[in-house]
Each structure stands twice: as structure tokens, then as C-alpha cells.
């Protein structure tokens, strides 16, 4: 698990418009609120994405970029964005490379058909505040969806001015 003060792991992931987004694009330019969520169009994930979208202007005025990441593919992200009028940029991590680098994956048991215990890899709802230098300033694992955007905005506002 990442801790405040750690260097944020680099990533390069496509967004819903097939543009590749890399952490390095933001270094020296803006802070990044990087939130991982389990699945497009689920109730909690929709609440979280809508709340971040509603506050996106406030994040940008405070000097932060908000990026949402899940294992859904870019097509799913596009549908999710369009269906709910989301403004936040959604990144596709189908191989879970970024999720593993940030320590947000967990194995969950699933029903067995043949009596053999099975698990699936799930993404734990988690958020990271990364400063302009690429340093993790907050690493929050297992967060709740409702009200989380407001909490993260407060954390962004507490960052030292550039």
C-alpha cells in the first residue's frame, strides 16, 4: 500500500475518447486526484463519478486534475460518461496494471461450480492525491462513495500553493 510521501507510480491509460493519459503529463503542471472505482454504472460508482463531475470546476480552480480509473474498457467508460453526463475523465485499466501499482486490488471469493475454491480480483474504491511533484500526499483505501469528492476537494485546498 502506498503511503503519503511515496512517489506516485507512473501510469499510461486510455480514456473514453481513446486518448492516452499518463501521470507524467501532470508533473509540474497540476495536482492529480486519482480515484479507483470497481465498475461503471453501479450505484456507488455512479454517485462518486457524479459528485466529482459536479465539483470539477472547483478542483480545476484549485489546481487539480481529477481522473477516475476502473477495469472497464473505453467503450464502457464512454457509455457511462454519456449516460450520466459525467465531466470527469475516466481511464481504462483492463489489465489492472495501475490498480496493482497503487495497491488497490484484492482477491474476493466467488461461488464455486465444481467444489474448487475460486477467487476474482476486485478493485477496492480508493483515492490518491498526488502533488505537482508526483508525490503522494494522501492514500485513502476503502473509501465511501457519497461525499468523497467534497473530502478530496478539501484536501486539494490544503496543498501548498505552487
Summarize it.
The chain has 162 residues and is α/β, with parallel strands linked by helices. The protein contains 5 helices and 9 strands, in the order E-E-E-H-H-E-H-E-H-E-E-E-E-H. It is globular and about 60 Å long.
What does this structure look like?
The chain has 162 residues and is of the alpha/beta class. It has one domain (12-157): Glutaredoxin, CATH 3.40.30. It is built from five helices and nine strands; from the N terminus they run βββααβαβαββββα. It has helices spanning 43-54, 56-61, 74-84, 97-101, 148-157; strands at 12-14, 20-22, 31-36, 64-70, 89-92, 105-110, 118-123, 126-130, 136-141. The longest helix has 12 residues, at 43-54. It is globular, with a radius of gyration of 16 Å. The two termini are 27 Å apart.
Quickly name the level 1 CATH class: Alpha Beta
CATH superfamily: Glutaredoxin
According to DSSP, the number of beta strands is: 9
Structural class: alpha/beta
Would you identify the CATH architecture? Answer: 3-Layer(aba) Sandwich
Amino acid at each position: 500500500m502506498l503511503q503519503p510521501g511515496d512517489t506516485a507510480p507512473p501510469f499510461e491509460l486510455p480514456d473514453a475518447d481513446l486518448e492516452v493519459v499518463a501521470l507524467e503529463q501532470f508533473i509540474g503542471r497540476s495536482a492529480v486526484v486519482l480515484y479507483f472505482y470497481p465498475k461503471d454504472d453501479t450505484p456507488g460508482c455512479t454517485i462518486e463519478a457524479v459528485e466529482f463531475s459536479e465539483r470539477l470546476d472547483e478542483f480545476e480552480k484549485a489546481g487539480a486534475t481529477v481522473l477516475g480509473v476502473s477495469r472497464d474498457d473505453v467503450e464502457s467508460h464512454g457509455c457511462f460518461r454519456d449516460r450520466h453526463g459525467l465531466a470527469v475523465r475516466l481511464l481504462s485499466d483492463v489489465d489492472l496494471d495501475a490498480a496493482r501499482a497503487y495497491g488497490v486490488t484484492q482477491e474476493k471469493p466467488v461461488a464455486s461450480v465444481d467444489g474448487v475454491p475460486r477467487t476474482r480480483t476486485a478493485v477496492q474504491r480508493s483515492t490518491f492525491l498526488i502533488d505537482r511533484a508526483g508525490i503522494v500526499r494522501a492514500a485513502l483505501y476503502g473509501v465511501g462513495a457519497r461525499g468523497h469528492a467534497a473530502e478530496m476537494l478539501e484536501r486539494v485546498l490544503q496543498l501548498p500553493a505552487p
